[in-house]
Hints:
By secondary structure, the protein is of the alpha+beta class. The protein is built from five helices and seven strands. It has helices spanning 13-21, 24-33, 41-53, 62-75, 99-108; strands spanning 84-89, 92-97, 112-121, 125-129, 132-137, 147-156, 161-163. It has a three-stranded antiparallel beta sheet, covered by helices on one side. The chain starts with 12 loop residues before the first helix and ends with a strand. The mean pLDDT is 90.
Amino acid sequence: MENTAxxxxxxxxxxxxxxxxESPAFLEQVKMAMPRGEDGRRLIRGAITAMQKTPAIAECxxxxxxxxxxxCAQLGLSLDGREAHLVPFGRDCTxxxxxxxxxxxxxxxGSVSHVHADxxxxxxxxxxxxxxxxxxxxxxxxxxxxxYAAYAFAVFTAGSEKAE
Length: 164
């Protein structure tokens, strides 16, 4: 009779971290940190996907991974590659909010109603003066040329604007 048992591979760093972050105890901690109505499963799924794409994350200290996940949960950001990222710096895992995640947080604060960022190219019609973008027109019928500047502006709920 043939032995058809499949040899099990030893658990790797991703498997070890995954078993910890999927545990009911850690999931409960994440759920308590998240905004009301969220159960944390999507955040954990995002962390697993991040470790599969970047295995070096799983080589980081468990404390730094757990801390990054709990901070992400508290901020209510998604680890979806658009709002926030887990980034390994040596043995430390660091939560790095993306531009879109920062915009979400600023708008959630209630003091800002709109944020816009853009690049300015050689052939754009652009006028900036003392913290205000006066004009930025792009002619889509011709090449824009090389980028020479970037800016962002916010419209505050009180109506004022600020550009940098």
